[in-house]
Each structure stands twice: as structure tokens, then as C-alpha cells.
Amino acid sequence: MKLISDEMLVESYFKAIELQLEDEFVALLLDEIRHRQINLDYYRAGEAQVS
């Protein structure tokens, strides 16, 4: 997971939720987001551009 950018990680997380992928996969992404201390509220509010 170290090779993936923060933006790509967040985009993947939201897409995984949208596509209703496996809970374990979504949890893995969320764990990495928390590990990197990424503020998802910043992305949800539309303040950041996610490709």
C-alpha cells in the first residue's frame, strides 16, 4: 500500500463502497487511510479533487 498515493487510496475507498465490494477489502483500505491520518471529511466535503 505504500506505493499508492493518498488521493488514489481515498478514491479507491469511495469506489469500493459505491460498488459494494467485500467488507474486508473496504476495511483494509480504511485501515490504511487511518494509518496515514487522512481526513476523509475533507474529501467528502468536495474540498479536494479526487480524480
UniProtKB/TrEMBL annotation:
Organism listed in the record: Paenibacillus naphthalenovorans
A UniProt-annotated Pfam family: Sda
InterPro entries: Sda (IPR015064), Sda_sf (IPR036916)
Listed name of the protein: Sporulation inhibitor A
